[in-house]
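Bit of a strange request maybe. I'm writing a small parser for structure token strings and I need a real example to test against, not something I typed by hand. Could someone generate the tokens for this chain?
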Amino acid sequence: MISRRADAVTFDDVRAAAERLRGVAHRTPVVTSRTLDARTGASAFLKCENLQRMGAFKFRGAYNRIALIPAAERARGVVAFSSGNHAQGVALAAKLLGVPATIVMPSDAPASKIAATREYGAEIVSYDRMTMNRGEIASRLAAERGAALVPPYDDPAIIAGQGTVALELFEDVADLEVLLVCTGGGGLLAGCAIAATAMRPGVAVYGVEPQAGDDFAQSFARGERVEIAVPETIADGQQTTAPGELTFPIVKRLCAGILTVSDEELRAAMRFAFERLKLVMEPSGASALAALLAGRADVRGKRVGVIVSGGNVDAARYAAILAP
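Reply from user aminoacidic:
Good idea to test on real output. This should exercise your parser:
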């Protein structure tokens, strides 16, 4: 079992997670575009986790975490809290491993994500995002049921599982100089930073979040965790209020910085992905691409990895977001 200490999450842990996920998670494709390169002056390589099982990278960490729970404990089930993608990832991983799953989801979560989570066989417990604490609700349910809590990002096994995204990208693409990673609570960013800096020393890793939800950017600038109000942004998967206690020290140590993008820049990235790449991205999943297109990082003449973290958005909302 991986240590609870954040500084004990190593590249070896990421490689062990990759072995656990072999044949279970999809090895997602890397997409390139001459049009994108011409617009940005970079050589861009998009790691498409929107094509992962259940439509997002979250499956990796969820499966790795649940697989590490001893069988006797697994039988009592797992509890998670999420606005959507972690919910689906836990629900699917639990189904594959034969584990009962209960997911605490906000009542305003996208209907498609709620429906998918329920279809994977999980029980859903709803709460009000603005007035109730999802972590407290999940912790109480886990204690009452004797179930294991599977947090969305603040767990070493989750971080290691998410790091397999960058591990695959750097195995498939040589000599990347910059890596742009969508970030909410920081599990994907921390895991990818561990893998990327181990495989390519000197690579500049940047997290990307919405301008309205700049808790990571503020925290990185101050050198300590900053908490904000629930942000109002179309990026529902990035409506976190503070970086993770375990993820932030890793990000602070290994990353070059945190970039922010506006909701309009997210829309532009989603539109570009649809029209020119033929890829469906949810707002949160498009944030790293949005940063690239908006020129948030100095990438001209460089080889840039871009993590597309997810594509779970229902058709009506997607059409509304892309409408002129």
